[in-house]
Design brief:
The structure holds two protein chains of two kinds. Chain A is mostly helical. Helices cover 74% and strands 0% of the residues of chain A. Chain A contains 20 helices and no strands. Chain A is globular. Chain B is α/β, with parallel strands linked by helices. A five-stranded mixed sheet of chain B has the order 2-1-3-5-4, with helices on both faces. The chains are: A mainly alpha, B alpha/beta.
């Protein structure tokens, strides 16, 4: 396991250091880097298999190449420039955050011990895929066989199964501890990335508060312990939105950051099908709500999409060459889609179910309601960073509506089984964008956004 | 928004959220039963002996006394049969289990009710190769 861990750290932090060019503190570079490195470790494994290199020596060579590339990138990045130290957080808040993380970790362990194979999606989709890939060797394509029933969702991209399969192979065991550890690490990365990014952009007090919001969201710990792809998706999307925020709050609008944000978004697309939607939504949001003249916005969106191209090509090859038809499309024809789209009862059912979810205390506490209220009541002119992210999230959110109306499963059953996990994809980025909007950047006037009068 | 009310609101919401999490993971999932739950056998242990008899890859047939849902729209009608199939698929990966294929060289008979084994084998024209458990057997088609 040593070489893979070095590969993840070296390549990811090297790439992050080159892109950030000393404009962000070590904490940001480390969390951005490890997220990037983990995603690249999985994506390169998939590329290797799809090119026919399935032997252990090929895997070893790939990891060694990642380490070498990482060392070269770190050497090229050179010494990090001095960044302004973020305003520190009060000791009571640091203690509160640490306690909350300790409690969340304990609850994660409890759930993982109780359900070592994770939730249904974990063992029926993600760990099944990982296990199949790890066991099958050169015959790994059987993991995507169209003869498997649709429940196995053979068309899903395989970021998480790629990590778990490599974990099984590197450790020589199929212990449930492997996917549990990966699930915990990806959840911890989401929290760390949010803290580091907000700490850099708005001061460590707000970093810790953002992390506290994420860790204390009831379903965050449960979904993480369930070993499903939704928290990893949230982590990858957060990586993309953090990089966009860093780019948009930098007066120089560095091209490397937009491109790296695109690469990160494409990693989200390699995690779950929804990631492709989020990638397009972010690109559209850059075009629609980015700062500057239309040419500047087009440049930013173009760089973003260029960064997404390599993993986009991997995804396209997988979908065209191997992926079984998606069940939502396979079981929907033109006449059935029209019938569902014109069924007013279906629309009404969906609307009510959605409203109910705003106050679904079991999974969200009062967080969802508070976020909607904060955005509606207190945000007037958000900065470009927040505006772009919120626009992308809104576009993605709106795309869910036709998806629910047209899909073939019983509506309420499918909605209840999926909506909270879809929200979890967006939730870490929503926290980021909301705090970026509510809290002025350093140097801006305090209370820049006035309370509504009357 | 002013800083202090925002900080206070986040802390209050966090306390509510963590309280809910603690209630769920310590009360709804009773913490006293955690040790027993952690020692409970995993579903795939049922299939360990069967896995040793099967090839490492390819496809085998699969029959059962319970129906497996093959298309969306009936998610709760055949939950028992579907779950049996899914657990077998997970345990025996990367083997592809062809539901309803009783003419494959090897066929798994996976039953919810062990008393129906003979009836299922008879209905599908199968003879046992190895009886792994009263409700789980490796079979082959009866020569015609």
């Amino acid at each position: 396991m040593i070489l893979p861990l070095f590969a993840i750290a070296a390549f990811g932090i090297g790439l992050a250091s080159v892109a950030l060019e000393g404009r962000a503190p070590l904490l940001v570079r480390v969390f951005v880097g490890v997220c990037l490195g983990a995603a690249a470790w999985s994506a390169t494994f998939a590329a290797l298999l799809l090119c026919g290199f399935t032997s252990p020596s090929a895997r070893f060579g790939k990891d060694a190449a990642l380490v070498l590339a990482g060392v070269l990138l770190l050497w090229r990045a050179g010494e990090a420039g001095r960044t302004q130290r973020p305003k520190p957080a009060p000791a009571w808040l640091a203690a509160t955050f640490a306690s909350a993380c300790a409690l969340a970790a304990a609850l994660f362990v409890e759930h993982a011990l109780r359900f070592p194979d994770g939730g249904w999606d974990a063992w029926m989709i993600w760990n099944l895929r990982a296990r199949s890939i790890a066991r099958a060797g050169a015959a790994f394509r059987s993991a995507f066989s169209p003869e498997l029933v649709f429940w196995a969702h053979q068309d899903y991209p395989w970021m998480l199964p790629g990590m778990v399969a490599q974990g099984f192979l590197a450790s020589g065991t199929e212990s449930p501890a492997v996917p549990v550890a990966i699930a915990g690490a990806l959840a911890a990365l989401a929290v760390g990335l949010l803290v580091a990014a907000l700490g850099h952009l708005r001061g460590m007090q707000w970093g810790l508060l953002g992390g506290l919001a994420l860790v204390s969201t009831p379903c965050f710990v449960t979904f993480a312990a369930n070993q499903q792809s939704d928290v990893p998706m949230g982590t990858m999307l957060l990586l993309a939105t953090v990089l966009l925020a860093l780019a948009l709050e930098d007066e120089r609008r560095p091209a490397k950051l937009f491109a790296l944000a695109g690469l990160s978004a494409s990693m989200a697309a390699w995690t779950k099908n929804e990631g492709a939607l989020y990638t397009l939504a972010l690109a559209a949001a850059l075009l629609l709500q980015g700062p500057g003249a239309p040419r500047d916005r087009a440049r930013a969106a173009g760089l973003f999409l260029a960064g997404a191209a390599p993993i986009g090509a991997l995804l396209a090859y997988f979908k065209l060459a191997m992926a079984h038809t998606n069940d939502l499309l396979h079981y929907t024809s033109g006449p059935t889609a029209l019938q569902r789209a014109t069924d007013l009862h279906r629309w009404g059912e969906l609307g009510l179910a959605w409203l109910r979810r705003l106050v679904y205390f079991q999974n969200w506490g009062l967080w969802l309601l508070a976020l909607v209220a904060a955005l509606a009541l207190f945000v007037r002119k958000p900065p470009a960073s927040s505006r772009v992210i919120l626009t992308a999230l809104a576009l993605a959110y709106c795309a869910y509506v036709p998806m629910y109306i047209l899909q073939p499963h019983p509506l309420l059953w499918f909605f209840r089984a999926s909506i909270d996990r879809l929200f979890m994809h967006l939730w870490p980025s929503a926290i980021l964008a909301t705090l970026l909007a509510l809290v002025p950047a350093a140097g801006e006037a305090r209370a820049a956004v006035p309370l509504r009068q009357g | 928004m002013r800083e202090r009310p925002l900080v206070a609101a986040i802390c209050l919401l966090a306390a509510l959220g963590l309280s809910r999490s603690l209630w769920f993971h310590a009360v709804a999932e009773p913490i006293g039963g955690l040790a027993q739950a952690a020692r409970a056998p995993r579903a795939e242990e049922r299939y360990l002996a069967l896995r040793a008899l099967l090839p490492g890859g390819g496809a085998v047939g699969y029959v059962s006394d319970e129906i497996v849902d093959l298309a969306p729209g009936s998610e709760h009608e055949h939950a028992v049969g579907t779950k049996l199939y899914q657990e077998a698929l997970y345990a025996l990966a990367p083997l592809v289990l062809r539901y309803g294929d009783d003419r494959a060289p090897l066929v798994i008979a996976n039953l919810h009710d062990p008393s129906r084994l003979a009836a299922v084998l008879g209905a599908h024209g199968l003879e046992p190769v190895a009886a792994v458990a009263p409700d789980l057997a490796l079979c082959r088609p009866v020569p015609r």
